[in-house]
Amino acid sequence: MADAARSTDRLEALDITRKLAAICGTPFARFAGPADEVAGRTARWVAVPGGPHAAAEVLRLAAAHDLTVVPRGAGTKIDWGAAPAQVDIMLDTGRLAGVWHEPRGAAVAEIGAGTPLRAVQATLARTNRRLPVDAPSPGATLGGVLAADESGPLRHRHGSPCAQLVGVRYLDADGELVSVGESGTEALGRATPGSGGGRASGRGPAGGAGGDPGRGGGDAILGRGEVPGLDVARLLCGSQGGLGVLVSATMRVHAVPAGRLWVSRPVWTPLEVHDLVRAVLAAGVDPAAVELDLPVPVPLPRRRIPPTHPSVVNRPDHPAVTGRPAAGSLVVLLEGGPADVTERAERLTAVLGAEAIVSHHAPEWWGRYPFAPGDTALRIEVPINDLHAAVYALRDATGGPVPVRGSAGSGTVHAALSGALPPGRVASILTAVRSVLIARRGRCVVVAAPAAVRRAVDLWGELPTLPRLRSAKAHLDPHHRLAPGRLPGGL
Questions:
Q1: Which secondary structure element, helix H or strand E, spans residue 168, and what is its range?
Q2: How far is CA 98 from the centre of its chain?
Q3: Where are the alpha helices (DSSP H) in 30-92?
Q4: Contact 220, 469 (CB under 8 A)
Q5: SS3 330
Q6: Bridge partners of residue 330, in order along the sequence
Q7: What's the distance, CA 238 to chain centroid?
Q8: Residue 102: pLDDT over 90
Q9: Contact 327, 269 (CB under 8 A)
Q10: Residue 72 and residue 83: Cα distance in Å, rounded?
């Protein structure tokens, strides 16, 4: 009987593979391999559809056979968050990319969800424009960035990537193509006189990969966009493909700034950062980003290096110059016209003091996470006036300094715990930090972690929007076929 059951399973698996090949093309449907994992959970099949209609057929096939589907973009954040309960079909968006409806001077562009963010920026740069999106993950697709609501330094001025949404097209769990907000052509009709309106054509991509559904998905339920249906569009942000498969997004675009300067100052304590950020925000210099880097402090050298030595020239944060270990840097990005940026930089250096320096280039760590593969990566969100308290709480809980990096101007930073810490120790650190943050309207989320830690700890912490998120899942994916278990609460 067992041999007969296995034979039946094999025949069914071969049948599904043939059907996927008929939808996507023979080279683009296969059994999954060891590398086709989602947070440690291996898929059964990989399908690489060539357009939204093919992606819709994949979802319809999954529904007919009661199979689960997890979208994958570039895979840069595929190990973030909780492992799905099951991955039958991994819907790879590698062939689903494109930038449409972006003529010169347009204020929006419709972009395929599978398009690498770098390719989007390169295409827009031809007409001197950009997306004000600078997600740190190298090679990330737009769909993956939106699915994780992943932000970089520019979030300080422009908000999260989901704040740039004008409309989306997505596939629901049954494979129906849904348009909410405005498509690229409709938005262009509103933004640029004389341009054509109407629905976007059927050509386009699909997909997305994951991050923190508790933030993007849960919070989006609370608000309503200025365009009808945009609250639903923003609900997909941070959902890790658990509420729908993104096909395309119509995004606001901006002119590339003519001038950019980075003003940096060494910092030694979180409390000093608090005072400096308040001074920066009160200076009226309109920063595009206010970023903090607090690595583990560098020990003092055994012998003093002369300040004129080539290794420390123009580095006022070096311990050989300051006589004390440098704990990190506060860096402010100024954007605008060249003359205006220069004038604002001069005003800012007067505020930050003699240790501030101005550069035409970002520091090496700019727009990068402080954690490495194998670490337990945390994201802390707290009002900026309480950011120093969060960093001190993290230090107290771990018994020493912890690498912290992120937006001091918006109160969202990331931290790294060693992957060697046992799960019980990580759980106690999270409990201590969250107890401090809850009274300050903050939260601490585990972004990524070794499998043992991921299984043992509460990744999300307290989430007031969980009931609304549960309602959204029940409405949009009642059979739990899309990335089941990836959302908070095991949704």
A1: strand 165-171
A2: 20
A3: 52-64
A4: no
A5: strand
A6: 265, 292
A7: 8
A8: no
A9: yes
A10: 14
DSSP character string of 224-238: --SSTTHHHHHHTTT
Cβ neighbours for 46, distance < 8 A, ≥ 6 positions apart:
29, 30, 31, 32, 33, 36, 89, 90, 92
CA distance 443 to 94: 34
Instruction: Tell me phi and psi for residue 143, to 5 degrees.
Output: -60, -40
Side chain identity at residue 131, one-letter code: L
pTM of the model: 0.83
Query: Taking the C-alpha atoms of 162, 120, 77 and 468 in order, what is their torsion angle to the nearest 10 degrees?
Result: 20
Tokens of 357: 């320096």
Residue with tokens 């690489």: 48
- The pLDDT tens digits for 186-211 are 544 444 333 333 323 232 222 333 34
Single-letter residue type at 316:
P
Residues facing residue 47 across a β-bridge: 29, 91
The answer to whether 110 and 97 have CB atoms below 8 angstroms apart is: no
**Exposure letters 345-355 (e unless 16+ CB within 10 A, then b):** beebbebbeee
| Dihedral class, residue 240 (left if φ above 0, else alpha if ψ from -120 to 50, else beta) | left
